[in-house]
Design brief:
The structure holds two protein chains of two kinds. By secondary structure, chain A is mainly α. Chain A is built from five helices and no strands. Chain B has helices at 4-35, 40-49, 53-62, 69-79, 82-91, 99-107, 111-123, 128-152, 167-179, 185-202, 207-222. In chain B, α1 (4-35) runs parallel beside α8 (128-152) and α3 (53-62) packs antiparallel against α4 (69-79). The chains are: A mainly alpha, B mainly alpha.
């Protein structure tokens, strides 16, 4: 292994760990109620939505796949919704 | 106390479809690392120690010989800042873990692991056995696929051809629908998606995740309490 490469990889690992552990360290200061608590309770939905919004709205196939996946997710197991979304995207792309 | 073994198995079962969807991306990363001149061992070392897909792909775009370690570390920190928010949200749910378990849980907290852990904590108590069942399943498969990709290189099919690149958006859509229990989620989703779209179109990098997330939770904090749908 190359020294500079290993150094760079370990520096990246440290940077990643710093972001993850810092959240765990500040988390127990959170209040039990009030606006800050509500903000953190909404965090999973807010971050997940932000993560995928640009991809979903990037084209017709992605929008169709998102609608199918969301509709299936409300009443079927996750795997069915996952496959339904992927197949929809592949079909719409194949139709051009 | 719930059975350790059944909790771990439930975690592994929840992650399995997600980890299978990650396999082509692990292989793509391994192939790209080989193209940038990393050895198989170096590519594996990165997947084992950094374990953050977005940052790993980003680093391949910045790679040079010798590797610019400071620039890579800073860029990785920025790309992964969203994990500080995610971990802060999860920290109350891992409060019963031992200190050592919390340290390991942070090390393994990739996007998908975090999302499945939050989903579990939404319905029931999140146990260390469930968490590590989820986390280690992804960790092992990500590492194996990295090695496979570095070895076979250019033979890997483009995931977009079969719609497989849509696997992660689809998984996250399923998880979001699981969290939504009343109308209050809708303004949060609208603020988060709208901000993410604007930032994605105007600012390079992963800032759209952080900015969209902050917009969403700000709306949640400002929403009136106690009103019914």
């Amino acid at each position: 292994m190359n020294g500079a490469t290993v150094l760079a990889i370990l520096a990246m690992a440290l940077a990643t760990y710093a972001t993850r552990i810092s959240g765990f360290l500040v988390g127990h200061w959170l209040p039990d109620a009030g606006p800050v608590r509500r903000a953190f309770d909404a965090l999973p939905v807010a971050v997940l939505t932000a993560l995928i919004a640009p991809v979903i709205l990037s084209g017709r196939a992605e929008m169709a796949g998102a609608v199918v996946a969301a509709a299936l997710a409300l009443r079927a197991p996750m795997l069915v919704a996952l496959v339904g979304g992927i197949v929809t995207v592949a079909l719409v792309r194949a139709m051009g | 106390m719930p059975n350790l073994f059944s909790e771990a198995r439930a975690g592994m079962a929840a992650m399995l479809p997600v980890a299978l969807a990650a396999l082509p991306f692990g292989m793509l990363f391994g192939a790209e690392a080989a193209r940038q001149g990393l050895s198989v061992a170096e590519a594996l070392l990165m997947s084992l120690t950094v374990f953050a897909g977005g940052a790993q792909f980003m680093s391949m775009g910045l790679w040079a010989d010798p590797a610019p370690w400071l620039a890579l570390a800073l860029a990785t920190f920025v790309v992964n800042l969203r994990h500080a928010l995610m971990a802060a949200s999860l920290s109350g749910k891992v409060a019963a873990f031992t200190g050592w378990q919390r340290g390991a849980a942070a090390f393994l907290m990739a996007d998908e692991t975090w999302a499945l852990a939050e989903r579990r904590a939404f319905g029931t108590r999140l146990t260390p056995a469930y968490y590590f069942g989820v986390a280690l399943t992804l960790y092992v498969l990500w590492s194996i696929s990295t090695v496979a990709g570095a070895l076979v290189g250019g033979l890997i099919p483009e995931p977009g051809r079969y719609g497989l690149d849509f696997a992660f958006p689809a998984i996250f859509i399923c998880l979001i629908t699981g969290f939504v229990k009343d109308w209050k989620a809708l303004p949060v989703i609208a603020a988060s998606a709208g901000t993410a779209l604007v930032l994605h179109a105007t600012v390079p990098g992963m800032w759209f995740v952080l900015g969209g997330g902050i917009a969403g939770i700000t709306v949640a904090a400002l929403l009136p309490v106690g009103r019914r749908a």
